[in-house]
Design brief:
The complex is a heterodimer of chains A (580) and B (475).
Chain A (H helix, E strand, L loop, with lengths): L2 H30 L8 H8 L4 E15 L9 H29 L14 E13 L10 H7 L11 E9 L8 E4 L4 E7 L5 H26 L11 H5 L6 E10 L5 E5 L1 H16 L4 E9 L9 E5 L2 E6 L24 E8 L7 E3 L11 E4 L3 E5 L6 E5 L1 H18 L10 H4 L4 E4 L9 H32 L7 H22 L3 H19 L12 H41 L1
Parallel strand pairs in A: 1-2, 1-3, 3-5, 4-16, 6-8, 6-11, 7-15, 10-12, 11-14
Antiparallel strand pairs in A: 4-5, 9-10, 13-14
Chain B lengths: L1 H23 L19 E5 L4 E4 L12 H5 L2 H22 L4 H10 L21 E8 L7 H16 L7 E5 L34 E2 L5 H9 L18 E8 L2 E2 L2 E4 L3 E4 H13 L5 E7 L15 E5 L9 E4 L6 E4 H10 L10 H6 L3 H4 L4 E3 L13 H4 L6 E3 L12 H21 L18 H21 L1
Parallel strand pairs in B: 3-4, 3-6, 4-5, 6-10, 10-11
Antiparallel strand pairs in B: 1-2, 7-8, 8-9, 11-14, 12-13
């Protein structure tokens, strides 16, 4: 082979290797690239921008007047219209000031570090319609009886629609304004001899309606400032469980010593009778899975103090000791069945050596219920067995215990007692009665408030989660984002949009469903197991991976290329010289 | 009109006085001397009820370390008086015309806070730290018999937190090796942290959540960030919320900004910082106490940037962290110095102890530990002087006494119908589930479904073949 041929072959060899390298580069690039489904980051950010979620929740309140005076001294229809218009304007102004007072507060430095804190700002807005009602509330009927009739006229069946029934009764000595808040969506107000004075009627109604929703309004304002020093003492939020679409509720009967007392309980019937009605009311918000267990040999983990009382030895648990009540590692209370947040309810039968066992207040008063609540965990009731032997808790026996559990459940799930806020100062002479809901454990007023609050909370949470996700994905460039995540995010955004539309249309139940969907799928996207890549993968590591592969090949290759170029230049020179 | 003018005037004055408020905010709330009726949090004072103007008077105490609050405190009532006077002045005309206007009179009465019905009944709420539950993540990252001491370190802390009341369900224990059952263990099925062999740490009741090869960086990150496969049991999850105080204790072999896991991989300080950041984003903790016993341990908390995290490390960057003593019968070192001296304090504590973390830190003796313990407090506004040791090492829960039940109907009769009522909700939930797109949980299937890859691949392959063919022709 001549040197000419030899050179040409060498060039070809070199070129072919280079060609292979060049062609392989895009393959390498594509195959080492992480798959990142595009996310609508702009849309997500838009939700968090200032004033995106400034909503007014419109509440419709019908005010109906009844003439119980008998002399027709009730205001005329025209006057009533005027009255309700004024009421509406006053109420909305009243609720406007609540917000304004708060907005100034937000200019403080605390919020500086958290931009867009005020992206959600929810205000209640009232729409009042007034008119004459005549035949339903007859003269002389007590509000309680009227409310008990439960007709569709007396209370609305829709969340966000309320009725205020105002009866003008003749003035009577010693009779005061009587307000009866029914368990349905209605209020009954008796105004003895007041109807003549428009201003007084208007004032009273303003206080009643305004007071009923004041707590809710304050709550919305609180929602926007979750983190901060004040939150450390906010018992309300410390006690209430975080929202989940499903809760696992476990009822445990713990018996200290089965050699003394054998216990059993009709828990299924009791749950069906007392707890399920409550849960079915809340089914709009969350699901509840209920299970129960009986455990024996559950030794009392703390030492009780024994004191003498009425000539008997009584064992007491002081509040300081109670926090350690649940710490025993032996009580296997945590359910392993599901990963839904658990709510535990414990009925504890103490050993004979320590009974009767009583929970006392810090002032050493024995607590009648013998029960206490552990925030975000559940409730405990202590029941003392009277004698050695067999103890069976029938449905009736469980009634007082279930009442305690329902009270604790209400606290844990964030149900707030309906009340007219500051009624003592607003209407000092009025007598107010709140109807409870002994069949369901929650009145419609309370349920409505809870639904609205959770809706707003879920929207706020979903938006926050989506934004966290967007931040995370933008910051961590080597994180894989599957189509699945994209679907979840798109779905959440769609649900958020639907929720907003539903809120605009004042359909609170629909809004609550969409808000829940948005919350669930945004959480699912954020906590997707595929969202963990090596979070931090520094460049040095990449070099460390590629160096041993490419350095041995590339050094001789580079040298060969340089040589080839040199040789090519030399040849060119030679040719030139020849030509010359 | 009047209102608008008044409001803007107020706003102007408030802005001008803002620096003063900054200085006072920490001091002012609920000060009875000046007789303001504030909210329980004492944060906003309405001085002008007409227009709802308020002065923001509470600012994070951390912003005002250098200003002496007492000096400015006295002037506050004057400022308030001045503002109120201004309010009165701007509203005189308006007030005279609408004195009878209901909202004006009502506004203050309505929005002034009224304690909850239950609030009076709340008794037994003790902790002012703001947490309602405690969690502990205890990680030993080293394998092999000669790392006996790391397992003993972790189990000692486990023993302590359990004794102080964190239940097993709230402790995530990760042990990379099972030295108790190692054939070289002269005392089978036991682990001791002292040559005196006082406590058998393995005891009867140790719940190891992640064992052996399960202790990986990935699992640790998954644990912290809460991203698990759906079939991971509850006991392996860190189910914390925004009211959880979390103790994260790690021990093993480390270096500058890394900690070795299992001899095979390592976690970087960035990884830990990012994991904590993600926890913060999702409100997965209230406060974290990050404690690490390894060489150059202080480098591990360097990168953390999320708030409310307190960190303590056994050694500064550049220093080694040493073992404490050898048990000649076991034949290896049984505990590390930093953990040993921590335990000296911790083991003496009782559940109700009021010692603060600062007191714990002040017991650290550089001579005895043989390295300088690092402590990082800049992310922890509550300060270690105010944080109790038991806020992290103990399982202190708050308690509320239930004074009354909720009156219910005695309900033998209803049970039948009500069970039926409950069923529709189940079907409703089934429907909802189908609406939410199912999440795919199997392993990463990044490229399997995509055709896009195949084109460059085929092209490249063809190119390669062509190259080979070309070469063969040439040669």
């Amino acid at each position: 082979m001549s040197s000419e041929d030899y050179e040409r072959t060498r060039t070809r060899v070199l070129a072919s290797i280079l060609v292979v390298f060049l062609l392989a580069t895009p393959i390498w690039w594509r195959t080492t690239e992480v798959y990142r489904a595009p996310l609508p980051v702009e849309d997500i950010r838009a939700w968090k921008e200032d004033k995106t979620f400034h909503r007014t929740l419109t509440l419709n309140v019908d005010v109906a007047f009844y003439d119980h005076t008998g002399d027709g001294s009730i205001p005329t229809a025209g006057k009533l219209l005027e009255l309700s218009e004024k009421l509406e304007a006053d109420l909305n102004e009243l609720y406007g000031t609540a917000e304004r007072g708060r907005a100034v507060r937000h200019q403080g430095d605390v919020e500086e570090s958290v931009p867009g804190e005020l992206f959600a700002d929810v205000k209640l807005w009232f729409r009042i319609s007034g008119g004459l009602g005549s035949k339903y509330w007859e003269r002389g009927q007590r509000p309680k009886d009227v409310a008990a009739k439960g007709d569709s006229w007396s209370a609305s069946s829709l969340n966000g629609h309320y009725k205020v029934h105002v009866a003008c009764t003749p003035p009577e000595a010693g009779k005061q304004t009587n307000i009866y808040v029914s368990s349905k969506r209605a209020v009954f107000v008796e105004l003895p001899g007041e109807c003549v004075d428009d201003v007084r009627v208007s004032n009273t109604l303003l206080s009643v309606i305004g007071g009923l929703f004041a707590d809710e309004q304050t709550n919305y304002l609180k929602m926007t400032e979750q983190k901060g020093e004040a939150a450390n003492t906010d018992w309300e939020s410390m006690r209430t469980m975080k929202y989940a679409s499903k809760y696992q509720v476990t009822f445990s009967l713990l018996n200290a010593d089965p050699s003394e007392v054998l216990v059993s309980w009709d828990i299924q019937e009791a749950v069906n009778a007392y707890i399920l009605p409550f849960f079915s009311q809340l089914s709009e918000l969350s699901e509840f899975a209920v299970d129960s267990q009986v455990q024996n040999y559950a030794a009392l983990p703390i030492q009780s103090q024994s004191i003498e009382k009425d000539g008997r030895t009584v064992h007491v648990l002081r509040p300081e000791a109670l926090p350690h009540f649940i710490n025993s590692a032996e009580w296997n209370l945590a359910s392993v069945v599901s990963s839904a947040p658990p709510l535990n309810f414990v009925l504890y039968i103490p050993p004979q050596s320590q009974s009767p066992l009583h929970v006392v207040t810090s002032k050493n008063d024995v607590l009648d219920t013998n029960a206490f609540l552990i925030p975000r965990w559940g409730g405990v009731v202590i029941s003392n067995a009277k004698e050695i032997g067999v103890r069976h808790f029938s449905v009736d026996d469980l009634h007082p215990i279930m009442e305690v559990y329902v009270a604790q459940l209400r606290d844990l799930l964030g149900v707030k007692h309906i009340r007219i806020r500051n009624v003592e100062t607003l209407l000092p002479k009025a007598q107010v009665t709140y109807e409870t809901a002994p069949d369901a454990g929650i009145t419609l007023w309370e349920l409505d408030q809870l639904v609205r609050r959770r809706t707003v909370q879920n929207i706020v949470d979903a938006v926050t989660t989506l934004n966290s996700l967007a931040t995370l994905i933008t910051n961590l460039e080597s994180m894989v984002v599957l189509d699945d995540i994209q679907n979840q995010v798109l779905y959440a955004l769609d649900a958020l949009h639907q929720a907003r539309l539903a809120l605009e249309a004042n359909d609170f139940s629909l809004a609550s469903q969409h808000a829940r969907d948005a919350f669930v799928s945004s959480e699912a996207a954020f906590f997707d197991p595929t969202m963990v890549s090596m979070l931090y993968f520094p460049d040095e590591h990449k070099y460390a991976v590629y160096m041993p592969l490419f350095v041995p090949i590339s050094v001789p290759l580079l040298i060969a290329v340089i040589r080839e170029i040199k040789g090519w230049k030399n040849r060119k020179k030679r040719i030139k010289q020849k030509e010359e | 009109m009047d209102d608008a003018i008044a409001l803007s005037a107020m706003a102007f004055i408030e802005e001008a006085l803002e620096p003063l408020y900054v200085a006072h905010r920490a001091q002012l709330p609920s000060d009875p001397v000046y007789g303001w009726e504030g909210e329980p949090s004492g944060s906003a004072e309405s001085f002008c009820t007409r227009c709802g103007s308020t002065a923001a008077l509470e600012i994070h105490s951390r912003k005002t370390p250098r200003i002496d609050p007492m000096a400015h405190r006295r002037s506050i009532p004057y400022i308030f008086a001045f503002l109120s006077a201004l309010c009165a002045l701007t509203h005189t005309q308006a007030t005279s015309s609408i004195t009878s206007d209901a909202p004006t009179n009502l506004s203050l009465a309505l929005w002034s806070p009224q304690p909850d019905i239950n609030e009076a009944a709340i008794e037994g709420f003790f902790a002012s730290s703001g947490h309602t539950n405690n969690w502990a993540v205890l990680v030993c990252t080293s394998r092999f018999w000669f790392n006996y001491r790391h397992i003993a370190n972790t189990l000692s802390i486990y023993h302590t937190v359990k004794r102080l009341g964190i239940p097993d369900s709230n402790i995530i224990l990760m042990l990379s090796d099972d030295v108790a059952c190692n054939p070289r263990n002269h005392f089978p099925a036991t682990i001791y942290n002292n040559a005196g062999r006082f406590i058998d740490l393995y005891g009867r009741n140790v719940e190891v959540d992640y064992r052996g090869y399960e202790v990986t960086v990935e699992n640790f990150i998954r644990l912290l960030t809460g991203r698990h496969d759906p079939d991971v049991p509850r006991s392996k999850r860190l189910l914390t919320d925004d009211r959880s105080n979390v103790l994260v204790y790690m021990t093993g072999h480390g270096g500058d900004e890394f900690l070795k896991f299992q001899d095979a991989e390592e976690i970087g300080s960035h990884d830990i910082a990012d994991a904590f950041a993600q926890m913060y984003e999702k409100n997965r903790y209230h406060e974290i106490f990050f404690m690490i016993d390894t060489c150059q341990a202080a480098s591990m908390y360097k990168r953390i940037y999320s708030p409310n995290i307190l960190a303590a490390a056994s050694a500064e960057v550049g220093q080694n962290s040493y073992s404490h003593h050898v048990d000649p019968d076991i034949g290896v070192a049984v505990i590390d110095r930093f953990t040993y001296y921590n335990l000296e304090t911790l083991e003496k504590l009782k559940g109700e102890d009021k010692s603060t973390l600062q007191q714990l830190f002040s017991t650290y003796n550089t001579q005895a530990i043989a390295s300088t313990p690092g402590i990082r407090t800049d992310l922890y506004p509550r300060r270690p002087e105010n944080a109790l040791v038991t806020d992290f090492f103990g399982g202190v829960q708050n308690v509320q006494l239930t004074t009354a039940g909720y009156k219910l109907k005695s309900g033998n009769l209803q049970s039948q119908t009500l069970t039926k009522q409950h069923h529709p909700s189940k079907s409703g939930s089934a429907k909802r589930k189908s609406m939410v797109p199912p999440s795919r949980n199997n392993a990463l299937q990044v490229h399997s479904e995509r055709g896009a890859v195949s084109l460059p691949f085929v092209l490249g392959l063809m190119g390669f073949m062509a190259g080979v063919w070309f070469l063969s022709r040439v040669i």
